[in-house]
Specification:
Number of strands: 0
Oligomer: single chain
Number of helices: 18
Number of domains: 2
Shape: globular
Structural class: mainly alpha
Length: about 500
């Protein structure tokens, strides 16, 4: 059930009416309803995979509770006569079990064939012989990278005594399966999100209005811009050997914007959907293409995942506490692992490694920190340019396809740009859309609060004209069924 589908619109409408009419008055009733519709939403993809998310949720709930029990036992023992060290706790073993359960499920479903194939190739290379790899027919559960990370973060936070484990089963199951962010985030932290399931909410017209507006804007970005870019990008990357000059350059540029618009659109729809049900999700994007350094970029891009890797991997490796060179190594390790998280391919590892290298080289060694407006503009173009070039590895099907794309970049073959699903008029319209997007983001960055306040509090005719324009543009200018299958890109992760 895609956010950009009629079935989701019907599902959202029915759920919204039932929720506010009958199920929001008592916490247990509200959370039971949220849990039911979340499992219904997930079951639309593959009902059998509900068993997996149920098993992961049950495991995290039980192990979190057991760790919390050991935490309380340690606290009690520390007040007694016996030294705490003599009371050997089981909490570490419970944590290991949670890590194995979550990452084990993730690795099996997402990486088994990749690791098996890589191992077979390595053995074949070392022995100078051909080794057949073992390949299983495994269905990748949609959203598994997200809900395993959210559940594991909960257990880790309980282990670190940042939060207490919840005793409410329904609350926790609803927390880990909340349908707006179940498939592709944002990855929520229990300390911020779980308490929202433990308080009664009342209907708020202002929240509903802002929520539906976010949904509309997200759909516009997805179906009008991102899916239009996908038509061109898919045709170019389908056969990189047939592309040279400007078409390759345009494809690199277009995919950079397609990825941003596609994923930020999903996040906006998720945040807006949560908002109309009375919940607040974390911001996942903050105008990353206006970043002036790589550190700044990653503070704005996929914020909840970046912070997850920072808090649970980077700090665990020692962060910046073990010297300059170890810090640089930690950064590169984290980015490489982040690349692998995105997909079972060495291309993704290379993409992650390159971005870690960019962070180390330009932020930590050269200390890219522009101060004047001109230098900020140049720096932003440089950062975004390198980022988009690294995305060639992200988008290309194979390593050789990525190399072909790099080899074919150039400033020739201008007429060839019109051979990949867009004529001159369509290309101009697309560039106008992208320029308009960047202009709006620049205005929001400088005067965001003032513009938002004026928009929602004044000039109702103008506001409603914008509402209607967004809806009509999404209906009449949206790209449906062309190029890709119109899934959100991050669904594959």
């Amino acid at each position: 059930m895609l956010f950009n589908s009629f079935s989701f619109g019907l599902f959202l409408f029915c759920s919204y009416i039932l929720y506010w009419a009958f199920f929001n008055r008592k916490i247990v009733l509200r959370n039971s309803f949220i849990l039911a519709i979340s499992y219904l939403f997930y079951g639309f993809w593959n009902a059998k995979l509900l068993l997996l998310i149920f098993a992961i949720t049950t495991t995290d709930f039980c192990l979190g509770w057991l760790i919390d029990k050991e935490n309380k036992k340690e606290a009690f023992d520390s007040e007694g006569s016996e030294p705490v060290a003599s009371k050997s706790s089981l909490r570490k073993y419970y944590l290991i079990a949670a890590i194995v359960a979550n990452l084990g499920a993730l690795c099996f479903f997402k990486y088994f064939n990749f690791f098996a194939d890589s191992f077979a190739k390595m053995v074949g290379f070392l022995t100078s012989s051909e080794v057949d790899s073992v390949a299983l027919d495994i269905v990748l559960p949609v959203g598994i990278s997200f809900y395993t990370f959210q559940g594991l973060a909960y257990v880790l936070d309980v282990y670190k005594k940042k939060i207490e484990a919840t005793r409410n089963v329904i609350d926790f199951y609803a927390f880990l399966s909340f349908f707006p962010q179940l498939i592709a985030g944002p990855i929520e932290r229990a300390k911020d999100f779980l308490p929202q399931f433990q308080k009664v909410v009342t209907f708020d017209y202002e929240q509903a209005r802002r929520g539906f507006f976010l949904i509309a804007v997200g759909l516009f970005k997805k179906v009008v811009i991102a899916d239009r870019l996908a038509v061109y990008v898919d045709k170019v990357y389908a056969d990189p050997s047939s592309v040279s000059g400007w078409p390759a350059v345009v494809a690199v540029l277009f995919f950079g914007f397609q990825l941003y618009l596609d994923f930020s659109a999903y996040s906006q729809i998720a945040i807006g959907t949560a908002k109309v049900f009375g919940f607040k999700l974390s911001q996942n994007f903050n105008m990353p293409y206006l970043a002036t350094s790589f550190k700044d970029f990653w503070a704005r891009w996929h914020i909840t995942l970046t912070s997850w890797f920072r808090d649970y991997l980077y700090f665990s490796l020692g962060g910046n506490r073990k010297g300059v060179y170890r810090t640089m190594l930690n950064v590169i390790i984290v980015f490489s692992v982040s690349g692998l998280w995105h997909g079972a391919s060495w291309n993704f590892v290379i993409w992650g490694f390159l971005n870690g290298l960019f962070m180390v080289l330009f932020d930590k060694v050269l200390k890219l920190a522009p101060t004047t407006l001109f230098h900020k503009i140049v720096s932003s173009l440089f950062v975004v340019g390198l980022w988009m070039l690294s995305l060639v590895f992200f988008r290309a099907e194979t390593f050789s396809d990525a190399l072909l794309m790099f080899q074919n970049l150039g400033l020739s073959n201008w007429e060839g740009m019109y051979l990949f699903g867009m004529d001159s008029r369509e290309l101009k319209f697309t560039f106008v859309l992208l320029a308009g997007l960047m202009l709006i983001e620049a205005l929001l960055k400088s005067r965001g609060e003032k513009i938002e306040r004026l928009f929602f509090e004044n000039y109702p005719p103008v506001r409603w004209a914008i509402y209607v324009s967004i809806v009509l543009a999404s209906v009449y200018l949206g790209v449906y069924g062309n190029g890709s299958d119109n899934n959100f890109i991050y669904f594959q992760f």
